[in-house]
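Sequence in, structure out. Go.
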Amino acid sequence: MTTPKNLLILMSDEHNPKVMGCAGHGIIQTPNLDALAARGTRFTAAYTTCPICVPARASFATGRYVHQEGYWDNADGYEGAIPSWHHQLRERGHEVVSIGKLHFRGAPGDDHGFSQEIVPMHIIDAIGDVKGLVRDDIPMRKGGDKMAKYAGPGESPYTVYDRDIAARAQIWLHEAAKKEHDKPWVLFVSFVAPHFPLTAPPEWYYEYADRELPLPKQYAKSERPEHPYLTDYARVVDYDTHFKGPEDVRRAIAGYYGLVSAMDENVGKVLRALEKSGLGQSTRVVYTSDHGDNVGARGLWGKSTFYEESAGVPVIVRGDDIPAGATRDTPVSHVDFYPWIFECVGAPVPDDGHPGRSLGDLARGTAPAKAVVSEYHAISSTGAAFMLRDGRWKYLHYVNYRPQLYDLEADPEELRDVAGDPANAAVLVACRKRLYEFCDPEEVDRRAKRRQAELLARYGGREAALARGDLGFTPAPGTRAEID
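Output:
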């Protein structure tokens, strides 16, 4: 029986799960996440439900896969229509507070379910990136030069915002310790780093820039994998064409690493405040990210693919009922947070058809392993794309293109697509059948495009969407991002 306790959820944005010291990375400095992992359980095969921000965060809120909840892209923000775990816990008398990035719709009158939202970031103008609604004859996006151009030492609105988030979280914890709570609370602290722009605080940037960083794997053009889905992404989101040589690439990697370490520093501030406030023993902690980042691997930057760097996420859980210093290789998904959050605070788990298993049971090894899925219906994709992770196999299914298959036991770095190997024909059939047990990809594709066409018409049609321009990244509260 799980003892009811408070819950602190720490989320970052775009954190490649390989880029942590506790994950075996030989360069990055993440002492606070490493310490959290030493006191808890780290999952080594954890996945987002969608490798792009807005749908991923809607899924995290509702505990459902994207094809179940229907928030498809970065112009379709969660508005509270489907009850979230925050709605339901608030209704049961729990204090449920968010600090930082939510990336929900954020229109006047929207109720996202929190008792309080502190300095929230939502999609711009409550409509977000409408150009991503265009799913055929997709033009190249502008602003791809920002990935390379902004990489380097300095401050951006995001690094300033993240420090404010950390400060407000520390204040909230110290003040919460002085109050009586009838029921356990949940605090959701959500940072933006290491999301681009790759402008990192100088003290962290130069920890990495002043060394000879290795180039990403399969970065040479002759080594890059060929698949039409990847070709579409690289053409529409042309980040890599703006890197003129190895020094540009290393500058971007140093920026990304610097942002990861800066985020880790902020995590450490919040965790120290938890202990100093006296709440450490009465609070469980979990860390994750909404999705990962390719960081130049295979010539790809940003997210939107199903490689481990992009669709994988870090997940670290700490609590007195969670094994310490343990790792679990059972595939898990963000949907598995949903039932566990209720269990943590002693609330009944809703019987609402959610597909998740308890993250706590998975950490303790008492839940059976099963397959998980991720999916993509957004920027650069002409048709629905799906990932199935089932044991050692990662199966990628495209409505418009041939499938891919990776044996992560034999090839953990995903250097070889073995879908064309006749020896794996039966595996392909079995994986496809397993995916269809989750959903019908063609039906989901039609449903997503129907919703996107409706939104596109509401916002003035294709030409109006293209005229609006490209949103490189959502502005932090109090700022306004340039739309090219």
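Check: The chain has a mean pLDDT of 96. The longest helix spans residues 246-276.
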